[in-house]
Amino acid sequence: MNGMDAYSNMRSHITPIPTPQVVRFGASALLGVGVAVLSVDLSRGIQVAVMVLAIGAAFLLTFSHPYRREIRAYLEKRNVEYKPRLSQVIPLFLVWLALMLVPALGPLPMWGTAVVWLVIFAWMYWVFPHVDGSRALAFL
Residue 22 phi/psi, 5° resolution? Predict the structure, then answer.
């Protein structure tokens, strides 16, 4: 099987409970804010407070949305244990790395902060269905 056949096969699996756009967009934007705020010219205390609030709000938005109950019910109906998997955590490595490196780069000009936000937002938006586990449902 060549690479294109494997990719086509993977794409043919339909996600039964897709991540709602409000969750995917909102959480990705909030995570971007959480990282980007570390690049602005504010005191470290304010930066950390905004970071914690933004990342906390992203988790709250994700885990309080009703689609999470639908995912749990879908898994339980198929006798699959509802637990985090390594494949859900690995894409977050880039965000963790950015959280460690961005403060060393700061303060950045506003365009630099916007680039940091855009990179983290785009990455999280792209991988979010893998991080929240909704994409894995297509392969059950």
Answer: -65, -35
Contact 35, 100 (CB under 8 A): no
One DSSP character per residue, 54-103 reads HHHHHHHHHHHSTHHHHHHHHHHHTT------HHHHGGGHHHHHHHHHHH
Q: What would the two tokens of residue 16 be? A: 């039964």
Crossing angle between the packed helical segments 93-105 and 21-36, to the nearest 10 degrees = 30
Q: What is the pLDDT of residues 35-66, one digit of tens each?
A: 999 999 999 999 999 999 999 999 999 999 99
Angle CA 124–125–128, to nearest 5: 70
**pTM exceeds cut of 0.90:** no
- Give the domain ranges of the chain: 20-139
Q: Are 124 and 32 in contact (CB under 8 A)?
A: yes
Q: How far apart are CA 136 and CA 128, in angstroms?
A: 11
- Amino acid identity of 116? V
Measured distance CA(23)–CA(65) in Å, rounded: 8
